[in-house]
Amino acid sequence: MIIVSACLAGCECRYDGKSNEVPEIKKLVLENKAIALCPENLGGLSTPRIPCEIVRINNELKVIGRDQNDYTAQFTKGAEIAANVAKALHCKTVILKANSPSCGYGKIYDGSFTGKYKEGNGFTANILANNGVQILNEESFYSILTNEK
C-alpha cells in the first residue's frame, strides 16, 4: 500500500483550506492502490490553519507559525501517527507534498515565510525516511506509475 498526502489526492486540507490535487495521485486512491492522509490534521491542527515553517531554535528543530506560536507538538504527533499507519500497512513508498513542514523531503521552506527554500525534511518525511520508507513527491512519483504497468 502507498500512502499519499491527502492534499495531493484532492482533499482540501492544506493550511489555506485548498488542495494540491494531482489527478494521477487521486486515481491511485480511488483505485484502492493508495491511502490518503494529512499528518497535520492527524496531529490535531484544523483546516484552515496558520502557515508554519521549520526553524532551528537553541539547536532544536521547531515548527513555528506565522503567528509566532510553536506547533512542534502537533507536527510531531501527526508524524508519529503517519509512521504508525505506514508500519501497520507495511508501506514501502509514500508520495508526499514537496516543501511542506510535514511532508517536504530534501527541500523545505526556510522559516522566513518569504517563499525561500533550504535543505531539510519535514517532520513526517523525516520519520518515514528514517524507517526506510521511500519518499516521493508530486513531481517524482511518476516512476511508480510506469513500474506498475
From TrEMBL:
Recorded superkingdom: Bacteria
InterPro entries assigned to the protein according to its UniProt record, in alphabetical order: 2-thiour_desulf
Pfam entry (one): 2-thiour_desulf
Name recorded for this polypeptide: DUF523 domain-containing protein
Organism: Labilibaculum euxinus
